[in-house]
Amino acid sequence: MKNILMKSILMYEKGGRKEFEFLKMLDRGRMSDNVKMVNSYEGWKNIIENGGFKIEDCIPHLSKSLIQIWDIGLRPIFPLLKKMTAQIEENSLMEIKKEWVELFMKIGYPIIENDKLLACDKEFCFFCFILRKK
Length: 134
What we know:
Elements: H1 4-15, H2 23-27, H3 30-33, H4 41-50, E1 53-63, H5 64-74, H6 78-86, H7 90-113, H8 115-118, E2 124-133
Antiparallel strand pairs: 1-2
């Protein structure tokens, strides 16, 4: 998964460029914690075939577009939302959480369900492979 955000984060981390320091807020440990196993389809295909397996089926999921919605739109605000919920009275918290879930289901579910259409033939970030030994 090589997008502008990730390239910029790497530029900041490796080069210490101050103008990209804000990207640490978007990253929040993603580069070091979450994407160690991310590879392109071709990259995985090469690893799989060199490992003595053949691909029976592949189900792509999570397009770059969907990942970018999470990276830029949601990931940076979750620490603040968590902090904010700690300040809400417990009797109101469940009602508010229910509203959040309803909103995210109305927005998120159609995005996820239509991910392949929204991807506009861009490469996906994650794959579920069904393998067979050669």
